[in-house]
Fold this sequence. Notes:
Helix content: 25-40%
Amino acid sequence: MNQEVEPEKRVAGDRPREQIPCSFVAFAAIVVLFAIAYFFRYSGGFRWDVYDASGLLAGLPPTPPAHGSAANASGGAAAKAPAVDPTALGRELYQANCAACHQPNGQGMTGQFPPVAGSEWVNGDPRVLTAILIGGLQGPVKVSGAEYNGMMPAWKTVLTDEKIAAILTFLRQSWGSHASAIEEGEVKAVRAECGGHAAPWKVDELGSLSGEKAEKKGE
């Protein structure tokens, strides 16, 4: 007589294995691919000079101390610190906030980030340049004869008027440029006029600030 084989008894507490949904796997793959693309997009090309905070590797002169103090003749309280040189301050701020994209030498990265050294936008209308740093810029834009189609973030909630003025002055007076300095009051005026511009500026919108067709710049 044949004996029936009893089905394998399931151990108490055992549960069938649950498979990960395909939709979750696809979503995770998209997130990973996006993260990789973002990393390589803003990695600065893994260049050794991208994070040269001192600027010495880019050939910039050493920054003199921005603040100083000295005891008075009687050995009492320290004397009042001298005023900060806006160009020196701007250089420090540029290295900390801008050099990763535009590079410590101001030459940018071909096809990705436009140059600021000798740029017609930097040496041009100070109101337009100030508005770009405050509100950001969305390409396409032509700089030094080449077209770029990235996006520069807005700095209006990150940097004060004093710091924006210092960076702009540094840009306009470095790498052989000798354009006029930009004062804190000028930045404050531009912020009051167009600080409410929500989205990053586009080239055709900037013409209203300078009174000319901004899209002709760089041609």
